[in-house]
Write a structure and sequence with these properties.
By secondary structure, this protein is α+β, with helices and mostly antiparallel strands.
């Protein structure tokens, strides 16, 4: 039946997505190459392919991971909002990436697409009787978000235009809903500030049935390169000094704080006995913290806080606003 979960189709798509993104990033970098660790976790079930590019010409560190893990009992991070799932066996598949560019004018980015199903959900749909005695429990999740260090309106508009177009075929209400969800999720509560300019975020999604929900997840995954590649190409040769580099390292600290304190995926991976090296590949290679640092008023660094770290409707602009970046016009 069309709306029965097909875990093999999801896995095949995710593996091909990982291949496509890694090939595109190597082409963008021009020098760096991914190294792969294929891993298994026999004590829990499942495994994955971790791919990391380090010290490239454009990307200081880029990690693109595929995982398919199984477990006999869901960890607390997965059942906090759905206590009825406590104790259930599960499958979780996904591709997750984080890219930390070398040039401070190229934004950091994150993308993740994933599928979750309880074991009983998969068993109930594959049985010859087609019995629905066990309520099917599966969903898709994912999205992508952008974390600039120096903001450009043209980049923000392009990023959100691609995000909008990726989900528009599935309903007019999805982009504003997923954008708001992204703004709310990637928010450092202890700092009271967003991580970046957002994008899309969704979870626990099965409202369209399996085939259409799977198509939505594929559309988001396929849109990532269309959203990110033009920004990298536009900014990767921008000249920068140690001032911009030090600000980039300082802002990377916020990225670390979010991933270690608030990110549900990190918590799920660690609590489910996942591979620590793969889970923490999202962390940047270099970072700094300065006590109570504040940007100089009217500086390019202050503009990040004043303009870009405030959720706003970037799609209200057909073209970039007339006010350029103070140092480097859009």
């Amino acid at each position: 039946m069309a709306n029965q979960p097909d875990i093999s189709a999801v896995k095949a798509y995710l593996l091909s997505l990982q291949d496509a993104i890694c090939a595109a990033l190597e082409s963008l970098d021009g020098a760096g190459r991914f190294r792969e660790d294929a891993w298994q976790r026999p004590e829990h079930g499942g495994g994955g392919r971790s791919r990391v590019l380090e010290n490239g010409a454009v990307f200081e560190k880029a990690g693109v991971n595929f995982s398919h893990v199984q477990g006999a009992s869901l960890p607390p991070s997965a059942t906090a909002h759905r206590p009825e799932l406590a104790g259930k066996a599960y499958h979780a598949l996904g591709v997750s990436l984080v890219i930390h560019p070398r040039n401070p004018y190229v934004p950091t980015t994150h993308m993740n697409v994933r599928f979750f199903a309880t074991a009983e959900s998969l068993e109930s749909t594959s049985s010859s009787s087609g019995s629905a005695s066990a309520v099917p429990t599966w969903w898709f999740g994912g999205g992508f978000d952008l974390t600039p260090y120096y903001g450009f309106e043209a980049d923000a508009i392009h990023w959100h235009r691609v995000a909008h177009d990726a989900v528009a075929p599935f309903g007019d209400a999805l982009y504003p809903r997923f954008k708001r969800w992204c703004d709310d999720y990637f928010f450092l509560k202890h700092r009271q500030e967003p991580r970046g300019i957002g994008g899309l975020f969704f979870d626990d999604f099965n409202a369209l049935g399996f085939e259409r929900s799977f198509a939505l997840m594929r559309s988001v995954g396929d849109a990532f390169l269309a959203a990110y590649r033009p920004i990298v190409e536009r900014r990767k040769a921008t000249p920068f000094s140690d001032r911009e580099r030090q600000f980039q390292l300082y802002r990377r600290g916020r990225y670390v704080e979010f991933n270690l304190v608030w990110d549900r995926g990190t918590l799920f991976g660690l609590q489910s006995g996942g591979r620590t090296e793969s889970i923490l590949m999202s962390l940047p290679p270099l970072v700094r913290w300065d006590y109570d640092w504040r940007p100089e008023p009217d500086s390019p660094e202050a503009r990040l806080y004043d303009v870009f770290l405030k959720p706003q409707d970037w799609l209200r602009f057909d073209t970039p606003p007339s006010t350029p970046n103070p140092q480097h016009p859009s």
